[in-house]
Design goal:
This protein is mainly alpha-helical. Helices cover 75% and strands 0% of the residues. The protein is built from three helices and no strands.
Length: 125
């Protein structure tokens, strides 16, 4: 418990959760860009690649970034849920859904998982 009886504690925690969410989305976007760059490099080379310029390496690096985005989103949701449990009702502003940021983080984590599956299916097709 914070003991401050101030709604700014909740609002600060919510901003932190959403900032981690933005970080997760950025990591996922970067991962897709890296994964797709390998395909682009292969197209530019006319389909000829050697072992050092393998598009598979770009795919795996990109998939790691998507997985990091997934992990960051879940970690942010877990941390925000822990903070919510420690707050008193007086610290949560009226007419605000305290679980909204939590569910947004869960949704982004689900989208990251779907994106990782999509990249893997498209890559190994």
């Amino acid at each position: 418990m914070s003991g401050l009886d101030d709604p700014r504690v909740f609002l600060s925690a919510e901003r932190s959760a959403l900032a981690w969410n933005r970080t997760a989305i950025t990591l996922m976007a970067f991962g897709v860009a890296i994964a797709r760059f390998g395909l682009f490099a292969e197209m530019v080379n006319g389909g000829k690649t050697d072992k050092t310029d393998s598009p598979d390496a770009a795919f795996w690096f990109g998939l790691v970034f998507v997985a990091l985005g997934f992990a960051f989103s879940l970690a942010a949701a877990k941390q925000f849920r822990t903070i919510l449990k420690s707050l008193k009702p007086k610290e949560i502003p009226p007419h605000i859904n305290p679980a909204l940021a939590l569910w947004v983080n869960y949704a982004i984590a689900a989208l990251a998982a779907a994106l990782g599956v999509y990249l893997a299916v498209f890559h190994f097709k």
